[in-house]
Structure formats: structure tokens, C-alpha cells
Amino acid sequence: MQRQNQWVLLMSTSIVSFMSTIDASIVNIAVPKISRDLRIPNNQAEWIVSVYLVLICILLIFFGRLSDQLGRVRLFQIGTIIFVLGSLACGLSVNLPTILAARAVQALGASMTMATNFGIITDIFPLNRHGLALGVNSSFVQVGNIAGPGVGGLILSFANWHYIFFVNVPIGIVAFFLGHHFFPRPKPVRGWPKIDAVGFLTYAGMILSFFVMIFWGQMIGFGHWKILGLAIVTLAFLAVFVLVERSQTDPLINLRIFQNLGFSFGILSAMLVYMCGYFNNVIMPFYLQDRLLLSSGIAGLILMAVPVVNIFSAPAGGTLFDHIGAEKVSFIALFIFIVPEVIFILITPQWSLLWLIIGLALFGCANGAFQNNPMIMGNAAPEFQGIAGSIAALGRNLGMSMGLALATSLLYHGISLKAGQRMTTYPDMHPDWFVFGMHYAYAFSLGLILIAIILLGIVLRKKYRT
């Protein structure tokens, strides 16, 4: 394949990756306006975020397995069209049931593209350019993950919430036709695909009970007996899933993929980093708009410091990967994360706004340099490339969802500790309570980064001992 065609295809897949990832977070900042516009309570408006994340996590592995049989390009292109139609339907929605149905369509398309994009890139680029190619794609994925509040704030400063979805339509159509023109033609499909139905149903049950536990736990507390019961149900589904997959000749997930320590710890460390990224998505808009009293437009511009720096640091990290390895680059990036986390733990409204911008920019630098996708895909054997891409995307979405739950729960737990009573909303009369809660939450975020450092340290030590 000609080199210029490779880069056109990389841009096509990366643009769709960006859109499908950003739609998991961009709606957060629009939830209050959607709630008022549709005349629904805030907690019901949050379903618009949750439905998208949950369905993607349920469908990712299914489409990853299907892509190995039907072809990744075919599934990616179909997913792009479905995602565009879902985005159009979201923008045209006028009530909660229609927007939830449209978000389900969006999630269907997004899961098809997320499950196949990494595999397509490793197929079309030679091995010695995987680092740079996956690094470029990582920049789009990571920017999509962290740019939601910033981009959403900018759109909402001059247009209504419908345009958060409408902007996907022309971009998605362009990406589809680029792919249609440049992608290699998919091979004809022979016979029906083999699907591990029992494995998929137990996996879906596990993911669903996990998310119900996470979202319900935020409302009634994670120590409640109902939440503990759901944790037991989730673990039971996991145990059954493992037993089923071990007995299947053609399983949904070949569990041998997790025998590679670099792959397993790569997934876990990537989840931890995405969890930390969501702390910024949840907490920083509150801090900028409610505590510092900045407009949504100005807040959006400040939050753009993360994705802007990320755009440059991700390809640079990918180039370094081609020379020294993804694990080394990611290990260094994790130490860079410590600096912004410490700034966020210590910062107060009396500090210059420049410190916050520096912290966000350093977070974007570290986030881009963290080569999670090349690290994960590089540790997966050739026969596992399709499912490895799906598991990587699943880890990302689980990390985002757990980050959302953790950041919210820790923020309000910290506020409650300062207030001496249970708090579940922003303390308008005591804004310093919020600052205490923010510091409390970011202290846990720093702990997650330290755990990721330990995991990658173990991988590097084992790698250079053998």
C-alpha cells in the first residue's frame, strides 16, 4: 500500500475514533442545559451519558470477535455510518426516550469502530512504523477522552446542545468516503460467523451488573447491602464467564491473551490513566465555573490546554516508542503525571490561574506520551490483534466509567467530611468545602498513578531480566 494512502486511512480511522470517544464525555457539560430543555431531572439526564458508555462496553468484545470473521474494514465502515445516523438522531431529539434510543444507536456504531480501528492500523502499517501510527491514533483517542468538557463548553457558548451531536454528521460522512475510497476491498464472507452466545450473555450480564453497581452506588453509597449484593452478582458472572470460555472451542475471548504480563498490566495501567483523566472532566468544570466564576466559554478554553498539548506529545511519544519501546516511554510519562496531580492537590483560588493552565498542560503532555495502545497491541500475538484492540477499547471505556464514579464519589465524600454531614450537591454557601473535596479526590488520583508506576515497573523489570 502506498505511504500516502496509509496516512489518509490513519486520519480516517483516527477521526472516527475521536468522535466516538469524545461523545462519551462531551455530553457531561451539556447535561444541565439538556435537563432544562427537555424538562427532566438532572439524574435522568445523566442516563444520556450512562447508556452510551454501558452499551459500548457490552458490545465491544462481541464486535472485536466478529471482526476477525467478517473483516475489520467492513465492520468499521458500517459502524461509521451507524454512528453518524445516531448522532443525527440525537441532535433531532425532543424528549428523553428519543435521545436515549438515539444514544443507543450511536453506541452501536461507536463500538463497531472502536473494536476494529487498532487492528486496521496494525494491518496497514509495517511493523517498524506501528509506534508512530498508533501514537497518532492515540492522540485522537486521548484528546477525545479529555477534550469533551472543553469542546462542549466552546460549542455551548455560541450554539445550543443539539450541535454537540450535529457536528459529528459532516465529519463522519467525510471519514466514511475517505475510507470507502482508500481502504482495501474487504474479502467476501463465506458462511455464517461463529458466535459464542453463552459467553457473550454471561459477559453482558457481568458488565451490566457492574455498571448498575457503580451508578447506583453513587446514589445510595457503596457500603449499602444492595451494592454489595451487586458486587457478588458481578463476580459470579465473571466466574461463570471464565468457566464457559475455558470450555469453548471457539470462545468470545481466548483467555490465553492475558498470560502475557505486558498485555495484562498494560490494560490495567491504561485503565488507571483513563480514570485519572476523568477526574479532570468531572471536577475541573465545577472548579472553573462555580468556584472561580468563569463563563463556560472561558472554562472551555482553559480546559483545552490538555488536548492541545496532547496532540503534539502523543506522536512524539509514538516516535520514541519506535526507538526505545512503549513500556519505557509510558513509564517516563507516568512520572510526569505526578507534577500536575500535586498541583491539583495543592491549588487554591488565591493561586494565579497560570498554575492551573500549567498543570493541565503538563497533564496533556503526560497523557499524550503515555503509549497505552502501542504497549497493549505490541504485547498481543498476531492471532490476537483483533480481540486485543477490543479489549484495549473496553479497558479505556471501563476506566472512563470508573473514573466518573470515583471522581464524583470522592469529591462529595471529601465535601461531606469537611461539612460534617452528607453532601450531594455543590456547597454554594461554603465554596471552600468544594476546594477541600477537590484536593481529597485528587489525592486518590495521585494514588492511582503510583499504582500504574508499580505495574509498569514490574513489566520493565521482567522484560529486561529475560
From TrEMBL:
It is a multi-pass membrane protein. The chain crosses the membrane at residues 7-27, 47-63, 75-94, 100-120, 132-155, 161-183, 195-216, 222-245, 257-280, 292-317, 329-347, 353-370, 391-413, 433-460. GO terms for cellular component: plasma membrane. Residues 9-464 form the Major facilitator superfamily (MFS) profile domain. The keyword Transcription regulation does not apply. It is found in: Cell membrane. Its main location: membrane. One of its GO terms (molecular function) is transmembrane transporter activity. Keywords: Membrane, Transmembrane, Transmembrane helix, Transport. The keyword Transport applies. PANTHER family: MAJOR FACILITATOR SUPERFAMILY MULTIDRUG TRANSPORTER MFSC. This is Transporter protein. It comes from Lentilactobacillus farraginis DSM 18382 = JCM 14108.
